[in-house]
Amino acid sequence: QVHLVEIGGGLVQAGGSLRLSCAASGRTLSAYTVDWFRQAPGKEREFVASISRGGGSTNYADSVKGRFTISRDNAKNTAYLQMNSLKPEDTAVYYCHSEPDWGQGTQVTVSS
User: 10 Å Cβ neighbour count for 82?
Assistant: First the structure.
């Protein structure tokens, strides 16, 4: 059975940092692009960042450029999202995605 498991969410003050991890089991991540999405209450799920199979290409939503960094360690079958300079508007459930699988999400709450 395939699982993507996100860990690392939590409560942080504005300006703080969090690092999310997405660990895969039952499949190998290295052959696939990995994305992070987020969904705030009452809003649609939105794209945050993506990283190519080898990690050489990344893309970010404009709202997180310069603050968030996506990375991966294929040897550990894990992807990461380093989030710095967090803002209250970053509050959301963050999801890891690698076609066709989604993680269960991890809550990130940024207090002002």
Answer: 15
> pLDDT band at 1, cuts 50/70/90?
confident
Tokens found for residue 112: 């002002």
Q: Are strands 10-13 and 92-98 parallel, antiparallel or unpaired?
A: unpaired
Give strand ranges (E) for 1-112: 3-7, 10-13, 18-25, 34-39, 46-51, 58-60, 68-73, 78-83, 92-98, 101-102, 106-111
Q: Which two tokens stand for residue 75?
A: 């040897």
Q: What are the tens digits of pLDDT across the range 65-107?
A: 999 999 999 999 999 999 999 999 999 999 999 999 999 999 9
Q: How many CB atoms lie within 10 A of CB 102?
A: 15
The DSSP call for residue 47 is: E
